[in-house]
Amino acid sequence: MKSVLILNGPNLNLLGQREPEKYGTSTLHDVEQLCRETAAKHDLSVTCLQSNHEGELIEALHQAGKALLKGDMLGVVFNAGAYTHTSVALADAIKGANVPVVEVHISNVHQRESFRHHSFLTPVSEGVIAGFGITSYVLAIEGW
Q1: Which residues contact 44 (CB under 8 A, 6 or more apart)?
Q2: pTM for this predicted structure
Q3: What positions are marked as the site Transition state stabilizer (predicted)?
């Protein structure tokens, strides 16, 4: 069975309490459970990781690339949070690991502050899904 890595960046551990008017009331645990249920419908397994540390996210992308080469990994659903708009290092990790990534955002970043309109990850991602709440994760998994 192939796996999908659900990778979440900084502050996503605060889902459900942080700005619920933008991000909703679902928790990260709810997101992870939804991803597991969706993946199971497609005969996929899911590994979930959230980190507030850029280096840990980079290491996870590197490991996903290795798993892809072994035939164990399908790809990564990645909500990099604010790192989306700031991290060349994450973009380089995606490119270097040669792992397929779907960039995901809970809110529609294009309706928000102008600095959120630019993503360093989009040019190295297979696709981008934004603005559908936590259903964005479902759409990403189903897109594989």
Answers
A1: 1, 2, 3, 4, 74, 141, 144
A2: 0.94
A3: 18
